[in-house]
Amino acid sequence: MNKQAIVKAFSRCARLYDDYADIQKQAAEELAGWIHTDGFRRILEIGCGTGNYTLRLKNKFEYSGLLAVDISQEMIEVARNKLQGREVEFVTADAENFSFPGEFNLITSNACFQWFVDLEKAFLEYEKMLTPGGWIIFSIFGPRTFFELNDALAACLKDKSIPAAAFLPRDKIAGILNRNFNGIEIREEIYRETFPCLRDLLRKIKYTGIRGEAVNSKAILGPKSLKKIEEAYLDMHKQIRATYQVFFCKGVKK
Fold first, then answer.
1. pLDDT tens digit string along 106-157?
2. Whose CA is closest to 188, among 129, 101, 249, 112?
């Protein structure tokens, strides 16, 4: 993972993110609905982005302290405007390598952890921050996300793949959780979207900040290559369809 490239991509697209992040919003709604208790006095949100999940958390836990963290200052600014007047503390930091003061009853994140370089190392630290019986609950994209695009790239450009192909599979996530938490729950949801053409899909990927070096390369975005990849895409999948694999995960402090 090129962390600086990720920060740059999300920061560049912060103002347009909400216009394209339909799947991330659906995951946020699903994740918030999965939290059935209201006994959280202090909550830490990792990777708050433009604040869509933050807003759902604050609506659900109005009187809980909420610390929302994101690596992109531009994303934080959008989130801060969205939650203006609400009692939320925003911090710009790399939550994978940052120690947060105090303890939390809930640590939660929507569609962020797939970008971590060492998720288990981060979880070791998060476990220390939780109060006894505290929860970690999150959504994370899996490696089947955009597999159709990856298939088409592999058929046309042998040395190219998309960042999502390296996302952690379910068994790896389960192993990390089991080594650090009790009461593990993981469930999978598949979301799908269709697009009129490949360029529209790539635009969606671009403005949700997840384009990655392969999707951004001139080898793909040139007119001839784009046409070739689109033809391969349609040949294999009959339409420009995008799959999003999302794992919803929960653990309880040991």
1. 999 999 999 999 999 999 999 999 999 999 999 999 999 999 999 999 898 8
2. 249
Q: How far apart are CA 168 and CA 5, in angstroms?
A: 19
**CATH code at position 117:** 3.40.50.150
Global pTM reads: 0.93
Structure confidence at residue 84 as a pLDDT band (50, 70, 90): very high
Range of the domain at 72: 3-145+164-192+244-253
How many beta carbons lie within 10 A of that of residue 35, not counting itself?
18
pLDDT at 213 > cutoff 50: no
CA distances 27 to 85, 106, 189, 193, Å, are: 25, 18, 9, 14
Alpha-carbon Rg for the chain in angstroms: 18
Helix (H, G, I), strand (E, B) or coil at 62: coil
Task: Let me know if residue 74 belongs to a domain.
Answer: yes
- Give the mean pLDDT of the chain: 91
Beta carbons within 10 angstroms of residue 239's beta carbon = 11
- The backbone torsions φ and ψ at residue 139, rounded to the nearest 5 degrees and listed phi first, read -115, 150
Residue 88 counted as domain residue: yes
Average pLDDT over every residue of 187-192: 98
Which runs of E-coded beta strand occur in 113-180? 130-141
* Residue 218 domain-assigned (yes or no): no
Assigned domain for 224 exists: no
Other C-beta atoms lying within 10 Å of the C-beta of residue 104: 24
Give me the number of domains the chain comprises.
Answer: 1
Sheet with 42-46, edge to edge strand ranges:
89-92, 65-70, 42-46, 104-110, 130-141, 240-253, 181-195
